[in-house]
Structure of MarR family transcriptional regulator:
Amino acid sequence: MHAIQKVFAPLNEAMLELYSKYSREELQTVLDYVTHSNRILRNLTENLRKPAKEEQENR
């Protein structure tokens, strides 16, 4: 486990530094935005895949 911690330590430090620049409220806003935009993108992606999936099923 120690080797993995060494590899990810710089990432952890960089993310902590990034988080420290934002208030809790700002981070909540970012989380809300990312969560909702992700849901929208997943739904739209699924809608784009439906015609191709239906075409394959009809073959």
Summary: Helices lie at 2-19, 24-57. The mean pLDDT is 92.
